[in-house]
Amino acid sequence: MVALGGVCTHDLHRNNGRDCRSGCLDLDGRTVWARACCGGYSRHYWDVEVRIVKPASHFRICMPSVEREVAELCDTSLPRAFRPVSLVFISPIVSPATKRVASDRLQNVTYSLDLAAQTCTCPDFVEVRGNLAKSGELGRLCKHLVRALNERHAFDSANNWVRAIVNAGHGAPYIAWEVSLPTAKPMLVTVGNSREWLNVFAHMKRNGERYSEASGPIEQFGWSLGGHRWSYGQGPAGASEIRPFLKQLDGVDFDALLRGDNRSRPPQSATTFVVGTAPSFPVPTAKTAVSSAAPSARPQTPGKPRSALGRLIGLLHR
After folding, report:
1. Domain residue spans in the chain?
2. Quick one: which of 2, 136, 241, 287 is 20 to 30 A from 159 by CA?
3. Which one, of 48, 27, 49, lies nearest residue 37 by Cα?
């Protein structure tokens, strides 16, 4: 039987699966056995992988029409797992620290930054980021805050993914997935302001190394959603393995994910990013959620069906 295999991280710690309870969700009008959880969604989360498993799995696709769609995801050319991650950091700046910076594009326009409160007067922060994330969460930071905090060494203790994003010099992503691959190092796929391009962060391969051994610095690569191509024709080591995953992200409504109710979950750790949990953006208010996301949203084709992976990602973020 084709199914979605899931592992409850609580069970991994306790080595006991008897406390898990199977749940049932409706996916596009069809019944799907979905996440089971040990005592509450607020405390126990999932590392989910797409694979062929036995019928006794926590995840079971019950309807044949869904089975056929999920079978496409079980092809060996697809990534083995993708995990939503939350990117957080601890800033050493606690006393008031203000700064003014010039706009990159507009002449005679400056913005005021408060590095302790992690606020900025630029449109990106005022209209979007200030409503989506709290202090200490990377998704709160516009490019001006990223640069200014980096100058003050605010990210020195953060993990490699966070430092790679910061060193790229752009605004932080809203959503991030760590993608595990069959024979290449894990990569980080991020969603920012653009709905036409994604960013992929991956280790560079040194001379003589295989994809699975890539130990070079983490670099950023751009992926065109509509064009299905790498920016400047250059992809990361193991690009052929992550391409099937990236192609199916065309069916994901990223703005809907940003408005989802999973954003209110606090991070489990106050040190770096949390693997295996959804990004911890608070729920935007009704006044700001739609209007603030609209300027950066890609027009959606009415009635365009979402890919099987798109529906799966939507399910994981519920």
Report:
1. 2-74, 79-90+158-318
2. 241
3. 48
